[in-house]
Amino acid sequence: MKGFLGLVLLAVAGCGTVTIPAARPPVSPASSASAPTTTPSPSVTTKKRAAPLGTAPPTWLGTRPLPRTSSGFGLQKPTPPELRNRRFTLPDRLPMLPGTGFAARITDPAPRSVIRRSTWQHGCPVRAGDLAWIRLTFRGFDGHRHTGELLVNGAVARDLVRVFHQLWDHRFPIEQMVITGRSQRHARPTGDGNDTAAFNCRPVRGATVLSQHAYGLAVDVNPFQNPYEKGSLVLPELAGAYTNRSWRRPGMILPGGVVVRAFRSIGWTWGGTWHSLKDLQHFSENGG
To answer: How far is CA 174 from CA 32, 154, 279, in A?
Structure first.
C-alpha cells in the first residue's frame, strides 16, 4: 500500500502538481521600516513537578540488599515512604500482545528458551514438558495495558487465563508479571520485590517440603501489597506497612474481593484464610 501511494504521489508530481506556499500579506511601507529592537525577556525556569509519592519506582528499587538473619531471610525494616502506598507498574519485558483488550497466548509445552530462564532443573517434581508458557495482558497501576508471562503446569493453563481475564475485566492492577529465574531466587534479598508469578522450583518458606509453586500449581499476586506473615516475619521484608489490611490501597487482595472470587471460580484457595500464618499473595490448586 505504501508503495502504491508513493507511485500515486510520483505520478501526481509528474503531472506538474507543485506545492504552493501560503501567500504572505503585502508588506506596507510603514511595516517595512526598521522596527525598534527589543530585548527578549529572560526565560523563566520552571521546576518539573515531582510525581506523587508511590506512583513512580524509586531509583534504588531492587538495589539495596538486606543483611541476612539466622533464618536466611532479610532483616525486617520499616516500609520506606515511597512504598507505603505503592502504585506504579514496571516496564514490560515482552512485546505487547496485539489488540486493545484482554489477550492471552498459551504455548504448551513451554519453549526450551523459556524453561532455560526459569528455576526448572532436573530433580524438580514436574517435567519440563508438563509446563506451559502463558503470555497475557494485564492492567497496570497506571491504568494502561501491559503484557506479562507466567510459567504454569499445563493442566491449569486455561483455567488461569480465565482468572486473569476476570482481573482484567474488574480493572485489578498488577505491577509486574515475569518468570522467576535462578538468579532471582539466589540473589540477596532486597525486600522490595513485587512480581506476580507462578512456577518456582523451591520448598515451602522455612521448610523442606516442596511448595505447590514447584509443581506450577500456585500463583502469587502482587506480593508486596499482599505479604506473607508468620509471627514477626513479613515477606517481602519491607512490606510491613501492608500488614495493616484496614488501610485499603490499590493492588490489595481482600476477603470476598475480585481476586479471591476469580481463583475460587476455578476451585483454587487463598493463603489469606490460613490460621497458623497468612500468605496473602498466594493461591493454589490444593490449598497448600
So the answer is: 63, 23, 17
| pLDDT, the chain, mean | 87
pLDDT number for residue 237: 98
Q: Which residues contact 156 (CB under 8 A, 6 or more apart)?
A: 216, 217, 266, 285
Q: How far apart are CA 68 and CA 50, in angstroms?
A: 34
By CB atoms closer than 10 A (0-12, 13-18, 19+), residue 20 is exposed
205-231 pLDDT, tens per residue? 777 789 999 999 999 999 999 999 999
Sheet with 282-284, strands from edge to edge, namely 218-220, 282-284, 269-270
Q: What is the DSSP letter of 148?
A: E
**257 is in which domain, residue-wise?**
90-284
Mean pLDDT over residues 166-191, rounded? Answer: 94
The H-or-E segment that residue 153 falls in is: strand 145-153
Is there a domain that residue 214 lies in?
yes
The three cell numbers locating residue 86: 505503592
Tell which wins on pLDDT, 145 or 37.
145
The residue behind cell 506450577 is 216
Residue with cell 512504598: 83
149 occurs within a structural domain: yes
C-beta separation of 251 from 203 below 8 A: no
Question: Could you tell me if residue 50 is inside a domain?
Answer: no
Would you call the peptide bond into 236 cis, given omega within 30 degrees of 0 as the criterion? Answer: yes
| Number of domains present in the structure of the chain | 1
For 270, the 3-state DSSP assignment is strand
Q: What cell does 196 get?
A: 506476580
Q: Compute the distance between CA of residue 236 and CA of residue 167 in angstroms, rounded to an integer.
A: 23
H or E element at residue 111: none
Question: Is residue 174 within 8 Å of 102, Cβ to Cβ?
Answer: no
